[in-house]
Specification:
The protein has about 80 residues and is mainly α. The chain has a domain of about 45 residues. Helix content is about 45%, strand content about 0%. It is rod-shaped, with a radius of gyration of 39 Å.
């Protein structure tokens, strides 16, 4: 009986070790998306508040100027010009 059991035993196969897959050295090119930044157009209320702040800073520093100069400077600052 022993010989029957021996004959029916499965033969063990040597397991193969999975080698890591080769990766290419070529890097992928990533395209960047072009982002356009639109300059915002400030409304009159925003310009007025900024001009008022410029006015107060100018007075504290003791500088001369006019309200129109403050308004134009506020517009430039808010538009990023």
């Amino acid at each position: 009986m022993n010989w029957i059991k021996l004959g029916r035993m499965k033969t063990l196969k040597a397991k193969t070790i999975n080698k890591p897959k080769k990766t290419s050295n070529v890097s992928k090119t990533v395209r960047s998306k072009k982002v356009t930044i639109r300059k915002s157009v400030p409304n009159e209320e925003e310009i007025r508040k900024k001009a008022e702040g410029i006015y107060h800073q100018r007075i504290v520093r003791g500088e001369d100027g006019t309200a129109i100069d403050d308004w134009h400077k506020a517009e430039e600052l808010l538009r990023g010009s």
